[in-house]
Automatic annotation (TrEMBL):
This is Uncharacterized protein. It comes from Paractinoplanes rishiriensis. The chain crosses the membrane at residues 291-313. Keywords: Membrane, Signal, Transmembrane, Transmembrane helix. Residues 171-181 have a biased composition (Pro residues). Residues 155-193 are annotated as: Disordered. The lineage of its organism: Bacteria, Bacillati, Actinomycetota, Actinomycetes, Micromonosporales. Residues 1-35 form the signal peptide.
Length: 322
């Protein structure tokens, strides 16, 4: 998400008013005067898409009835850093009115630290150190880490909201998935079918390659072969095996092949024996010549393979394109 195009994420440690409890805790260990200290909070925001950022420091007074003078304003991190907007000698107004300082940081800087020390009119001194982090540094964004009053030191952690983080490029529009296409070099092997007319009947054979692709989760297809005489047989399509079914020859015999109730387009599959080539006694000799060629030839077989190929492809949800 582009942080510069939406609301800039902020890391804050808003401590104004929260030091009442801290002041009381310090007062237990020292005199009431030792509760005097500057308050400090940091607000981090991104300034460039490259990840540069800045911290706006808010410097306040713990006292509502006494002003103070800044006697030290030091950048502790990054080394060599500077702040603008405040300087030594500035008056720290009464609580409720704050001073503001700005610290600019580069994308390579992961933490900002500032130390502020003040002196009250009757000689009491107090100092506060504050830190603010980039979000991607793994820190919580900002806190006051230490308050020093005279010789006493109190460590306080104040969690805040998220800090600054480098902008990340927005993902571009997704590209549509390419449509699968069938190319000659990518064709998977398919079963080969043969329909042979013998003098005593019709033989239907299937030769299935071992590496044939069946629908997902299917180890064997079972085709249904039904004759116009009412006889039905099953023809298994099993990778690496040859299977066949035989129908006794009856005048006008024809069959159709289906799978899961849907007829496959193998064309006309008929028993067409040549009377002159049969011995008239039934025999098992295959029919040859033109009569046999019409049914056992390539046209019917190719139509069958094409029909099965389309049928399986449709079940695998593969789209063929021209």
């Amino acid at each position: 998400m582009n942080l510069l195009k939406s609301k800039l994420r902020r890391a804050t440690a808003v401590l104004a008013g929260s030091f009442l409890g801290v002041a009381g805790a310090v007062g237990i260990a020292a005199s009431p005067a030792s509760a005097h200290h500057p308050t400090l909070s940091g607000d981090a925001v991104c300034t460039t898409a490259a990840g540069d950022w800045k911290v706006t420091w808010t410097i306040g007074n713990s006292q509502s009835n006494l002003t103070a003078t800044l006697i030290e304003v030091s950048v502790l991190a990054p080394q060599g850093g500077t702040v603008s907007g405040v300087k030594v000698g500035d008056t720290l107004p009464l609580a409720g009115t704050n001073l503001t300082a700005t610290q600019e940081l580069s994308a390579s800087d992961t933490v900002a630290k500032l130390k502020v020390k003040a002196k009250w009119d009757y000689g009491t001194e107090g100092e506060t150190e504050g830190s603010a982090w980039r979000k991607d540094s793994g820190k919580d964004g900002g806190k006051v880490s230490k308050i020093v009053v005279k010789e006493a030191e109190l460590s306080v952690e104040k969690p805040s909201s998220e800090g600054c983080k480098k902008d990340e490029p927005e993902p571009g529009p997704s590209s549509p998935s390419p449509t699968p296409t069938e190319t000659p070099g990518d064709e998977s092997p398919e079963p080969e079918f043969a329909f042979e007319s013998y003098c005593d009947g019709l033989l239907i054979k299937a030769d299935t390659p071992a590496d044939v692709e069946l629908p997902d989760g299917v180890e064997e297809l079972v085709l249904t072969v039904k004759s116009n005489q009412g006889e039905t047989k099953e023809l298994p399509i099993t990778p690496g095996k040859k299977t066949e079914v035989f129908f006794d020859g009856v005048e006008g015999l024809s069959v159709e092949i289906s799978y899961d109730g849907e007829v496959l387009d193998f064309g006309d599959i008929k028993w067409e024996p040549a009377a002159e080539e049969c011995d008239g006694e039934g025999g098992g000799l295959p029919v040859t010549g033109a009569a046999a060629g019409g049914i056992a030839g390539g046209a019917a077989v190719l139509l069958g393979v094409g029909g099965l190929l389309f049928f399986l492809a449709r079940r695998r949800k593969v789209q063929f394109t021209a």
